Amino acid sequence: MERVLHLVKPSLPPSHLLIERRFPLEMNVTLPEIRELYDSGKAGRWNPLRDIDWTALAPEPYDETVLQAARRTWSRRLWVEATGLTETPALLMRFCMEAGREIDPKFYLTVRNTEEAWHVECFDRIAESFGGRIAAPADRAYEAAFNRNLHRRIMNVEQNLDSYVACFAAFEDGLELELCRTWRAKSTNRAIAEVLDRVIADKERHAAFGWLYLESRASHWSTKERALIAEELTAHVRETELKGYHCPWLAPEHASAEADADAITAAAGLGAAPRAAEEQALASYVANARAKLAELGVTLPMFESNRMRTF
């Protein structure tokens, strides 16, 4: 009898969760600047259906090459932004379950998740307007850059919460903000410009939250904790950013279709930027982040890539 071999993908290691300790329940404002982010997020709430003039998107004048490029660019943005739909609730749960954590980040993260949902809705609508959402990268190997399991990572008790915030709420959200500003500067389509204006306003709060929280915690860090933060940030840059997660031109061996699409989308003014502009934004942002981290006692090394200058 012929034997059939069933290949089973290796499973992720089990996560060790915190034990919930709800009491004493502390509701006092201890981080007023983060509480202000929560308040300003509520005051600045917007509705993608009501506040964006979608008729201005007008895909009809663009040729098929541009349409296909734009749908791929905005589909990739959707893959990135959709991470927050699971990651932010998990981060909120971690703040709630870890004893002694402040109330203000817990309030703020409820607003952040709503804003991420609006971004997802907008990016999906843009992709659909230009020919339909693309469900996955052209090269299956590129999928690994997006399947990061951040929701599992943050819920694992072995993951240091401050180092996680440093990587993903400060550094990564700050980089996304700078890239969005770069895309907005090159956008000539009015509807896309309106979307990016809204997204930038939200991401300013997202990045501010991460950096403000690090500043509030830095005086309590040990030398070991500072080294851990530097280690995890370095790993993030090398294993995520340099693998083309935000800038596909950094990984042409797997993301050439996405990089080519971004170049066409940028030339058409549909919400992307030329590679040179993104490279400058990336290098400038990392330099600024390195200086901020140094003030907190965290040393971020220089990074080398054969796709761009040392940064």
Features:
single chain, 311 residues, mainly alpha, Ferritin, 11 helices, 60% helix
Sum this structure up briefly.
The chain has 311 residues and is an all-alpha fold. Helices cover 60% and strands 0% of the residues.
Any chance you could write out the topology, listing elements then pairs?
Blueprint: H1 32-43, H2 48-51, H3 64-81, H4 84-97, H5 103-129, H6 150-155, H7 161-185, H8 190-217, H9 223-239, H10 252-267, H11 275-295
Helix pairs in contact: 1-5, 1-8, 3-5, 3-10, 4-5, 5-8, 7-8, 7-9, 7-11
Protein name: Ferritin-like domain-containing protein
InterPro entries: Ferritin-like_SF (IPR009078), RNR-like (IPR012348)
GO molecular function, one term: oxidoreductase activity
How would you describe this protein?
- The protein has 311 residues and is mainly α.
- The protein has a single domain, classed as Up-down Bundle (Ferritin).
- It has helices spanning 32-43, 48-51, 64-81, 84-97, 103-129, 150-155, 161-185, 190-217, 223-239, 252-267, 275-295.
- The termini are far apart.
- The relative contact order is 0.14.
- Residues 1-10 have low confidence and may be disordered.
- InterPro entries: Ferritin-like_SF, RNR-like.
